[in-house]
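In this supplementary section we document a worked example of the pipeline. Step one takes a protein sequence of length 147 as its only input; no multiple sequence alignment statistics are reported here. Step two produces a three-dimensional model, which step three serialises into structure tokens for compact storage. The input and output of this example are shown verbatim.
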Amino acid sequence: MRILDTHERFWSRVNIQGPTPVFRPSLGPCWVWTHKTNNKGYPLFNVNGARIPAYHYSYEAEKGSVPPGLELDHLCRVPLCVRPSHLEAVPHAENQRRMGEAKTHCKHGHKYTKDTTYITRNGHRKCRECARIRDRARGRKRGPVAA
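The serialised model returned by step three reads:
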């Protein structure tokens, strides 16, 4: 049995015929990781006994090390994508800002629009429908008001 080197082992776990990202179709198809992931769905790869994000390995193989103080942002918004051209090194705050822009629906599936969204004092976007549901549920828990 032939033992694969690290590079061959990595690429044997990538499907370069992945989907075209809905968020940015102009990027072309994603290269999808088909092996282990963490609990948030991001790809993991073992290199010399260390477990690293698989997209880091891909990025560094083509573009070099991620500069200090920066992190990799998936331009395609597909966590399993390891295609280097879909990755950009940015500051954490920029990565977080971009993630917020990419979301079109809240975690319960309600569409974000001007009328269905409000911004908290902390600058976080919130869903009005979820707030209504949460407020109704809290009201039921308290029971009827005595007269």
